[in-house]
Design brief:
The structure is a homodimer of 326-residue chains. By secondary structure, chain A is α+β, with helices and mostly antiparallel strands. Chain A contains 6 helices and 16 strands. In chain A, the strands form 4 sheets. In chain A, strands 2, 3, 4, 5, 6, 7, 8 and 9 form an 8-stranded mixed beta sheet that branches. In chain A, strands 14-15-16 form a 3-stranded antiparallel beta sheet. In chain A, β3 and β4 form a beta hairpin. Chain A is globular.
């Protein structure tokens, strides 16, 4: 582990469009840590770079946004998926750290990548991207893969690939939402043992990345009132001086790529803690609506009431896309 | 209590700009419930209308946004504040319900209001606004008042007041943020006993109002890691499969009107539940950094660690602006 593993952002002397004859050269320059692997990250530390070399059949390169496949589960001989990928293994976890921490990820494109974004020869540093979310799905070879959605941090900057090939930047994961909300850092040196950051005594406006957006809707309002704002997992009712507060959690998430419906059978009334746990795969529901932690331990039954039927279809979708056995 | 109390939005036959000779006439039309009071709401139900008639010296009308003063504490003879206002009393609480529920509030301007927004005679319905936040402060008469920030829901719509007088809509409470994030309903019939709303099986994109935005920053990241993502109030560490999750809570809020700094002495590492409680005045810290609920009951000491000093100045600011005795 070197100090460079804690640096996230553009490297001095390596502006967007810098080229490298080989992966080894990009590695020597500090762009990417590894010669063979796609994700340049370590357990417990965010990833500082990903390489796009068409190593996984499920990768999708759209220039300004990327659907990237996690690592693992491949047969080194045939290069095909022969097992499920694990989010906690290889460097997949490091991309989750990037997402949670809002840290920029360098993108290195190789000549074997998708046209028209791939360079004709060698490798090219194409700028900083941000991981906006991740989910599990069945890959083309029939095994579970983890998908990471990344969007370019500087959409207005000149692109190093052929502009003619640029498709409109309407990604599948609510890019407009994302772009409007986020003012991400373009370079962060982050070392746990480093001194406390000086901070900003007078931030011009609410600063930093958006860690989480909680939305409500008429359906959510109805479900929350029906449960008296009590969490359906733990029964908690936040003790506030005036209006009650709870959150309407969509079991199958709204928006791309999940496209869950805003209907009462897809909404739970949860406290903020259990909402985060549901959204991030810390808990799931089994077919008997028993709440379980991510290790499968029983936490207790979901509180149910008359007039609020929970859809098993959405419950199963949630399990599948968080990588739990369906 | 009539059915109209549960209807939030524009009334049929009463478009923006409709005029009424008197408060009684506006009342008869169903625009506002009361002839004398500013806030048209009930305990436990959101407000459907506010009247702007310069009843409170602290009111500020900026056309597209309004700083509105809560009710109570006035001497009926002198019309001056002679006591603190209470957020749970009069109709103040109903505006908190409007804020939490994301429900639109009709605005009725009277001829005694501020120029150039007030009508020359009588009263005028000026459209729908949304309550974005509320806080306590000392009013001009020296007593605690509650302030509500409202912004116009349809900024592109023709304004019924003299356009020349319109100041730029750069409100003091992060309007740009608010506008970008919110796609609010312009009319909601909400009755607790009504049938379940049909919902939307295929929402075009993430729908509804933004209930809550959690931001992070480099300072927040540092403080969260310093505490190992354990909540400084309850010690909870959310059990997630990969990256830890906690929230950096600013004691004195970022952005207008509070303008808290993004510095480590103004940030706590909290679980989502205690973050909501801190932000919404469900808990506060005393001068010994003991966590107390809003009734003043001791919940236990805040967890403190070396290298993270919490500013008493910000702790006191938080108390004052949530209406707790400083």
């Amino acid at each position: 582990m070197s100090k460079a593993d804690y640096y996230f952002g553009e490297l001095e002397g390596h502006p967007v469009g810098s080229t490298y004859a080989s992966r080894a050269e990009a590695m020597a320059a500090g762009i990417h840590r590894f010669a063979m692997q796609g994700i340049s990250g370590s357990a417990g530390i965010a990833a500082n770079c990903i390489a796009l070399s068409k190593g996984y059949v499920d990768d999708e390169d759209h220039g300004d946004w990327i659907l990237y496949t996690g690592a693992g589960g491949k047969d080194p001989k045939t290069d095909r998926q022969i097992a499920d990928q694990e989010i906690t293994q290889y460097h997949n976890a490091s991309l989750v750290y990037s997402e949670e921490g809002g840290l920029p990820v360098r993108v290195l494109r190789g000549h074997k990548g998708e046209k028209p974004y791939a360079p004709k020869v060698g490798f090219r540093y194409d700028g900083l991207y941000q991981v906006t979310r991740h989910w599990a799905e069945q890959g083309r070879d029939g095994f579970r893969i983890w998908r990471f959605h990344l969007v370019r941090l500087t959409p207005d900057e000149a692109r190093p690939w052929t502009p003619a090939g640029q498709r409109p930047a309407t990604g599948p994961v609510g890019d407009a939402d994302f772009r409007a909300d986020v003012a991400p850092p373009t370079s962060v040196t982050y070392e746990p043992s480093a001194e406390a950051p000086a901070g900003n005594p007078a931030p011009h406006r609410a600063t930093g990345i958006v860690q989480r957006i909680v939305r409500s809707s008429r359906v959510a309002k109805y479900i929350k009132e029906l449960h008296g704002h009590r969490c359906q997992v733990c029964g908690l009712n936040l003790d506030l001086p005036v209006a009650p507060y709870s959150e309407g959690a969509h079991i199958r998430a709204l928006g791309m790529p999940h496209n869950g419906p805003d209907t009462h059978d897809n909404v739970l009334c949860l406290c903020p803690n259990h909402h985060v746990l549901l959204d991030k795969g810390g808990i799931y529901l089994d077919d008997h609506l028993i709440v379980r932690d991510h290790a499968g331990n029983e936490l207790g039954p979901l509180t149910v009431v008359n007039g609020h039927d929970v859809s098993l279809t959405h419950v199963r979708y949630h399990r599948e896309h968080h990588g739990f056995a369906s």
